[in-house]
Amino acid sequence: MKMGFRVVEAGGGIRDESVALTDLVIAGWAGRDRAAIDEHIREMEEIGVAPPSAVPLFYRAAIHNLVATDELQALGPDSSGEAEAVLIQAGGETLVALGSDHTDRKLESYSIPASKQICLKPVSVEAWRFADVEDHWDQLVLRAWATIGGERVLYQEGTMDGLLHPRELFAKYAGGSKELAPGTAMLGGTMAVIGGIRPADRFEAELEDLKLGRSLRLAYDVRPLPVIE
To answer: Are 64 and 55 in contact (CB under 8 A)?
Structure first.
């Protein structure tokens, strides 16, 4: 599958990149702090999800689930988003985009892999070169907002030092290699939700680079589809 990205470089240059994608990987339980992981596990247990067998875990989903969209249709009212950096191996370099691991929470209590597969994963059109942010990766700020019942609330916020560094994720996933295989896109993990996991009518996210004075942004509306028995 080919997907186009607008790559914004640290020096201000902008280029369009068409990337041939073959594999979508979702890094779960990818926190650097065990206490933060345990908090997220408790969040998930509150909605009926069994704790993981190991941390981190790498779930798989079909590559066509990764989409650039401003509206997501989900079956039923029980899905919600999670802001995540998306690491993309594009030829000879790694790109960084911003995505949402939108997940069916009702199905998740039955099967996490199935819940990952059933929902699309929105991703930003703009991307950065990982090489431009690797030296200050831990300082990047990840945020999300949810619009619930007409009220926009802060849903997630934290610096990337709360999550495993991409190189460590790559090594754990790829058996020691610090690079992803060409064509692989990896959602790099998320952080705890403020106020508990819950569905929203609209989901927005931002990955802010304070050092270089720029942000990646993502926003989409959620349209539930009726469940017909």
So the answer is: no
CA distances from 78 to 137, 220, 227 (A): 33, 16, 11
Using H for helix, E for strand and C for coil, what is the string for the chain? CEEEEEEECCCCCEEEEEEECCEEEEEECCECCHHHHHHHHHHHHHCCCCCCCCCCEEEEECHHHEECCCEEEEECCCEECCEEEEEEEECCEEEEEEEECCEEHHHHCCCHHHHHHHCCEEECCEEEEHHHHHHHHHHCEEEEEEEECCEEEEEEEEEHHHECCHHHHHHHHCCCCCCCCCCEEEECCCCCCCCCCCCCCEEEEEEEECCCCEEEEEEEEEEEECCCC
Q: Which residues of the chain have pLDDT under 70?
A: none
- Cβ atoms of 198 and 146 closer than 8 Å: yes
CA-to-CA distance for 79 and 96, rounded, in angstroms?
Answer: 25
Where residue 76 falls (left for φ over 0; alpha for ψ -120 to 50; beta otherwise) is: left
Strands 23-28 and 184-187: parallel
Contacts of 196 (CB under 8 A, 6+ apart): 43, 46
Q: How much of the chain, in percent, has pLDDT values that exceed 90?
A: 79
Domains for the chain: give ranges and CATH numbers: 2-8+16-225 (3.90.850.10)
The model's pLDDT over 71-124, given as tens digits with 9 standing for 90+, comes to: 999 999 999 999 999 999 998 899 999 999 999 999 988 898 899 999 999 999
